[in-house]
Amino acid sequence: MTEGPPPYEDVRMSDTSSSALPRQVADAYVDALIELDPITGTYLGVPESSRRLPDFSPAGQEASAELLRETLRKLDAAERLPGADSDAERRCGRLLRERLTAELAVHDAEEGLRAVSNLSSPAHSITEVFTLTPTATDEDWAAVVERLRAVPAAYEGYRASLALGLERKLYGGPRATATFVEQLTEWGGEGEAAGFFAEFVAPGPASLRAELDEAAGQATASALALRDWMRDVYAPGIEGAPDPVGRERYARWSRLYNGTDLDLDEAYAYGWSEYHRLLAEMRTEAEKVLPGSGPWEALAHLDVHGKHIEGVDEVRAWLQGLMDEAIEALDGTHFDLAERVRKVESRIAPPGGAAAPYYTSPSEDFSRPGRTWLPTMGETRFPVYDLVSTWYHEGVPGHHLQLAQWTHVADTLSRYQASVGMVSANAEGWALYAERLMDELGFLPDPERRLGYLDAQMMRACRVIVDIGMHLELEIPADSPFHPGERWTPGLAQEFFGNHSGRPADFVESELTRYLSMPGQAIGYKLGERAWLLGRENARAAHGDAFDLKAWHMAALSQGSLGLDDLVDELSRL
Q1: Rounded to whole angstroms, what are the CA distances from 258 to 467, 471, 487, 526, 565?
Q2: What is this structure's pTM?
Q3: Residue 147 belongs to some domain of the structure
Q4: Residue where a domain terminates, one of 243, 273, 304
Q5: Is a pLDDT exceeding 70 seen at residue 7?
Q6: Same domain? 200 vs 332
Q7: Residue 161: is its pLDDT beyond 80?
Q8: In terms of residue numbers, what domain contains 420?
């Protein structure tokens, strides 16, 4: 069995001198974090990380928390030094303090002892990191063997954390637990299906075939052992526990994902205002698609009669073409893109994950490009209306342009600001702004694509409503067309979401499970978009006729991560 991460004493930031400024402290933190978390190392493209996995046990979690505390102590000293008040140092120090404080609050509340999800958990990180682990050479595959051999210990550390949570009555959600058991079953393989790890090693070299198959078999067995424990011990142990987390836990998670202490009641009201605005626009476009119909009747019509792509390989290639066309149209007109930022790959997501598409950033040296991932959920026919604005969101000009640009300018920021310091609501807000920008620029010229875009926007408005509503058990407003005056429950949330989405039932169910197990994350799309739009409006007002949208875009994308506390202020200054 491969050894776990080195002892914490070996990765202390002892080489960070007492004269280090905030950006140096931030980058020393990244170096130390990679030692504790080789999954982060793989995301950044660090070759040495490919052989290991993190320690997800309670001791491993505490080691990570102590690194947060030590870094904050060093930041205290760094911010008192001459030069720490420059814009570059101030911005980095502010982000580092906010992020590490939010992460430490989550740790101190022992949230890591009940980390069960259908999308974001240590087990999901283990599976996803293999899709990013290099496999170009025999040496790469030898590293894969070692990483596979580390899977059982990583799963066991995660199980130990959940077991301690059970002991302390810190329960994950029953709904997410049931879904996670199903995912572990799929990763382990059912019937004639080989399972995730066996399929992953299938293309490996003949010279390592025995080692790869043996290590994949051990990883598969450990996934199924975790499945059995989750099903037979954990699920009965949390029976009757609530899925909603309540206001106190929700506020803590919301701070982590959004980088601000939100007025949750104001955010809930904003979600409803966007709902009513978008519903009116959707009705207008639906009339153009299918006269006499409502929005979701028109979307159902498009599912059958609209433009579509037939075949998995074909949809991957079509999405690649969509992104390539967007780059050609936008570069030089609304963005100035470096050559290495212009490259992005379309991929099909491995089975067993959540239903939502996603994006993975390029490695720091761009040897692994940015990639978009489409979960097919077993489908082979893909309506175009459901893909176009989604790929403007995930790819270009959405996640890829922002996160690849951060990587491109990392040497002028800090490694931290360009990578692990990412605030979810900043990135998701930009991606939703990118969808709106493409509508503003005329890239959604027909009612079919525009109705799909509005459906995606409506989904994000509904996320704000149901995510805050069901976790805080708020009252549904009197002017709502849906159960006015009642209080939200997960059942009502799923019904509401399904009634206001053109997406299939399995997608809706996956989304609701995601919101229940990642409280506060889903609201960042709309609230982040609002921050980006306000920042642009303020900058335009300040510059008047001299406002240059292309220059603003590039300056905005080159400032690195910021929480919503600071994003509007910084965008308004550009």
Answers
A1: 14, 16, 25, 11, 8
A2: 0.90
A3: yes
A4: 243
A5: no
A6: no
A7: yes
A8: 254-524
